[in-house]
């Protein structure tokens, strides 16, 4: 089987780990399966996805040792991407490490936002990047009361 990814009912719940706000829609399923394959092969940096309220989520990414100036957050076509560049890696570090357990390598992590999802804020505190997202429905999709006109 090699590097092929076999989707079974036992690993489908993994899709929920990086799909914010519920199941992905069929038109995005192929991209989501690609994200699943990336997550099963590279889980760096570690992250949490927290449901704050209906339609509101927080993505927490552990980035100890990273400079927030080198972290890039983008949203395009419902895909939240967090990345850093190889500039983060200090190749001229002259420290003589006995053990180097804090990784500082270039990375890209992607998360599917819920439909009409948007990033509200991003904060970097004590090595933890927190990104808050929210589902913002367009006015045309919000419930609206229709007045009944009485004609005599």
Q: What's the quick description here?
A:
This protein is mainly beta. The chain is about 10% helix and about 30% strand. The strands form 2 sheets. The protein has a 4-stranded antiparallel sheet, with no helix packed on it. A 3-stranded antiparallel sheet has the order 3-4-5, with no helix packed on it.
Kindly describe this structure:
The strands form two sheets. This protein has a four-stranded antiparallel beta sheet with strand order 1-2-7-6, with no helix packed on it. Strands 3-4-5 form a three-stranded antiparallel beta sheet, with no helix packed on it. The chain has one domain (12-137): Sandwich (Immunoglobulin-like), CATH 2.60.40.790. By secondary structure, it is mainly beta. The radius of gyration is 20 Å and the shape is elongated. Helices cover 9% and strands 32% of the residues. It starts with 28 loop residues before the first helix and ends in a 17-residue tail after the last strand. The model has no long low-confidence stretch (mean pLDDT 78). The protein is built from one helix and seven strands, in the order αβββββββ. The protein has one helix at residues 29-41; strands at residues 47-53, 56-62, 71-76, 79-84, 108-112, 117-125, 128-135.
């Amino acid at each position: 089987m090699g590097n092929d990814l076999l989707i079974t009912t036992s690993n489908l719940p993994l899709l929920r780990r990086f799909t914010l706000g519920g199941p992905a829609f069929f038109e995005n399923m192929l991209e989501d399966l690609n994200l699943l394959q990336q997550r099963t092969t590279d889980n760096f940096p570690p992250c949490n996805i927290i449901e704050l309220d209906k339609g509101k989520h927080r993505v927490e990414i552990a980035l100890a040792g990273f400079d927030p100036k080198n972290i890039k957050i983008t949203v395009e076509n419902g895909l939240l991407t967090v990345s850093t560049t190889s500039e983060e890696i200090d190749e001229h570090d002259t420290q003589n490490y006995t053990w180097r357990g804090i990784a500082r390598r270039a990375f890209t992590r992607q998360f599917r936002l819920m439909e009409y999802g948007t990033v509200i804020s991003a904060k970097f505190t004590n090595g933890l990047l927190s990104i808050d997202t929210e589902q913002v429905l367009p006015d045309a999709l919000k419930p609206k009361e229709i007045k009944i006109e009485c004609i005599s």
